[in-house]
Amino acid sequence: MRQDVMNRQAIEERLAQIDLTLPPPENEPDRQYYFMKKLRGWVSEKKKELGRPLYANITTFGCQMNARDSEKIAGIMQMLGYEETDSEKADFILYNTCTVRENANLKVYGRLGQLKSAKQENPGMVIALCGCMMQEKQVVEKIKKSYRNVDIIFGTHNIFKLAELLSRKIFDSPQDSEMVIDIWEGTAEIVEELPNERKYPFKSGVNIMFGCNNFCSYCIVPYVRGRERSREPEDILAEISCMVKDGVKEVMLLGQNVNSYGKTLEKPVSFAELLRRTEQIEGLERIRFMTSHPKDLSDELIEVMGNSKKICRQLHLPLQSGSSRLLKIMNRHYSKEDYLLLVEKIRRAVPDISLTTDIIVGFPGETEEDFAETMDVVERVRYDSAFTFIYSKRTGTPAASMEEQVPEDIVKERFDRLLARIQDISAEKTAEAVGSVCEVLVEEVNKREASLVTGRTDKNQIVHFPGSPDLIGTFVKVRLVSAKGFYFIGEQTE
Ligand code: 5AD
Ligand code: SF4
Fold first, then answer.
1. How many CB atoms lie within 10 A of CB 437?
2. Which residue has the higher pLDDT, 286 or 180?
3. Maximum alpha-carbon separation in the chain
4. Which of 115, 209, 212, 309 has the fewest other C-beta atoms within 10 Å?
5. Distance 468 CA to ligand 1 centre (A)
């Protein structure tokens, strides 16, 4: 994990200006810098007292948005003086949760149960929970009742307040078992200029918007992430420029529905326009984005993608179902035909683009005919890869009260059939690519075989090839020698 150098300097300057003898300021982000400074002093004392570092362990469930939020949290913890660790024998444990499907919730409860004995061993341990699951009232009630070892709960809108909440736990109620709970319903605020961290020095996610207004009938995200709001383009571009000066070569622009970026701004800016401006940042080499909603993917965007040298030849375009009948009930605002037409247009503008998707099996009322339509789209589009999900009933969504839930055994059988076909097509496509030469951004030493390094092509394919760790963070021309499942073995060509 690392901080942008420029960001770090700016943070130190801000911290230096804070006077802890005064009450905390009301305005953000100054208020958070006040609590960061206060906690920093406490962490440094605590380290001396214990004769060892203080460790923070952060676990992320769910999507890229959560991954990025966790990087921000890690940035704050690092500023406070904590060291990050993979072990749950830590002084601060945080689960950044997901609730898009029921099994994500179950995993968190399981992990919380396991933490009980760890906290007995280290009573100073602070356990914090945040993320989408915490925006559900019944979840917070359950934790208050059954998981008393949790210290702090916050939601998806107030991640920037972590230092303040931790201060409350440490300075205001250190001994008692009072949980610090702060969940926001309001969603208007976007606080900029906080510490930020990223996992890789050479690539990073960048939030361009938060929330979702689409209310797909199966999906809980609009309820837990709130209404759609976009960051100002100037803030986004300044953040990316700062990252690029610090060595970032690839960015992933993140949002639940990036294609509707900018609509809520005082001076609206289209996503295509944001991409055009991002492309002009000197030194930035690759641009990715996710997730796209087919209903909002404009001709303007397709044109920008077609003309761009930096936008990667990769598009994640969730289908959800191939049945126009179900798509209507899902509230997706496109038909099977619209989707196929869109794919055709995109392929015309960007030949050889890698297409990936999300598909749900077993949505209420899904018939064999509906499912056959999904299989038909899979055959026609030939996705490079796809995430397949079994429909999960989410309390509060319109689909949860739909009758005709599909029997489990039928869903399972359809799911297996779909997955097998997707994997076969994916293997066929990777086999077709063998022999070609690609530019690979090298990311790390191979986890299993230290003589290999691992990177990604612009189509987001994973390639392992013999090479030295010096190559990490650089672009290398690699010939794809063989395909294994969804990844390649390659060799450097120059
Ligand atoms: N059940 C199963 N899958 C879901 N997704 C969203 N909500 C549900 C649900 N209730 C899937 C969609 C979405 C992806 C992130 O998760 O396919 O694109
Ligand atoms: Fe959920 Fe639909 Fe919004 Fe995606 S677009 S987050 S599936 S409601």
1. 13
2. 286
3. 70
4. 309
5. 40
pLDDT-above-70 percentage for the chain: 96
Cα dihedral 285, 440, 204, 240 in deg (nearest 10): 0
Q: Which is the closest atom of ligand 2 to the Cα of 225? A: 6
Measured in degrees and rounded to the nearest 5, phi and psi for residue 57 equal -120, 120
Task: Say whether pLDDT at 344 is over 90.
Answer: yes
Cβ proximity of 78 and 195 under 8 Å = yes
Of residues 121 and 6, more confidently modeled = 121
The sign one gets for the Cα dihedral 489, 491, 492, 494 is negative
Stated pTM of the model? 0.90
Closest CA to 162 of 130, 137, 134: 130
What pLDDT does 388 receive?
A: 97
Please tell me the chain's helix, strand, coil percentages from 3-state DSSP, rounded to the nearest 5. Answer: 40, 20, 35
| Residue from 290, 293, 394 whose mutation best tests the ligand 2 pocket (most atoms within 8 A of CB) | 293
Instruction: Let me know if 69 is exposed, middle or buried by CB neighbors in 10 A (0-12, 13-18, 19+).
Output: buried
| Ligand 2 close to Cβ of residue 222 (< 6 A) | yes
Q: What's the pLDDT tens digit per position in 357-411?
A: 999 999 999 999 999 999 999 999 999 999 999 999 999 999 999 988 899 999 9
The residue nearest atom 4 of ligand 2, judged by CA position, is 256
Q: Are 240 and 254 in contact (CB under 8 A)?
A: no
CB 156 within 8 A of CB 96: no
